[in-house]
Amino acid sequence: LDFEEGFSEKPYHCSNGYPTVGFGMRIGPYASPLSNYTFTMPRTAAEVWTRCYLDRMTNEIFSSCPRTANALKALAAAAGSGIYSDPRCCVLLSMAYQMGEAGIEDFTNTLKFMEKGDYTKAAVNMLLSKWARLDSPNRADRHAKQMQTGVWAPEYKP
């Protein structure tokens, strides 16, 4: 997330027009004036906030996103490591962070291929999505390669 979202200690408007700070954390309603947010967020605080958010997001996935939960469990089991340390699990979490827990549930075929351990087909399906074609093509390409290989993209520092 550090690479994909970047870090800003000062609030800014994200590409969708929402006030945002830290590692892409939305802090207010659409088009709110940045003058409403007169603070800076130290990197350490942003890291803690993001980790807490990821923990909450992961719990939400396990409680109400069955397709994503099954894929995440299968990826973690195949890796034999924690979800925050496995390259493939981190792809899925990064996607959920960007699109929301509900948004990732729409990747039905991709999630099925992840669950079955067919990472090549999962990667291909990721690249067929609107997310890959229009929203975040470079991110999607890095994520698809990492999903296929199970190796951290060179841009990422595990």
Write a structural description.
The chain has 158 residues and is mainly alpha-helical. The protein contains 9 helices and 3 strands. Strands 1-2-3 form a 3-stranded antiparallel β-sheet. A hairpin with a 5-residue loop joins strand 1 (8-13) and strand 2 (19-22). The radius of gyration is 16 Å and the shape is globular.
In short:
The chain is mainly α.
Helix and strand layout, with pairings?
Elements: H1 2-5, E1 8-13, E2 19-22, E3 25-26, H2 43-64, H3 66-79, H4 87-99, H5 101-105, H6 108-116, H7 119-127, H8 130-135, H9 137-149
Helix pairs in contact: 2-3, 3-4, 3-6, 4-9, 6-7, 7-9
Alpha-carbon Rg, integer = 16 Å
| Derived structural class | mainly alpha
Largest sheet: 3 strands, antiparallel
* Shape annotation: globular
Distance between the termini: 10 Å
- How many strands appear in the DSSP assignment? 3
Question: How much of the residues is beta strand, in percent?
Answer: 5-15%
Order of helices and strands: HEEEHHHHHHHH
Counting H and I runs of at least 4 residues, what is the number of helices? 9
* Mean pLDDT reading: 95
> What fraction, in percent, of the residue positions are helical?
55-70%
Strand order of the largest sheet: 1-2-3
Low-confidence stretches: none
Key features?
3 strands; 158 residues; three-stranded antiparallel beta sheet; mainly alpha
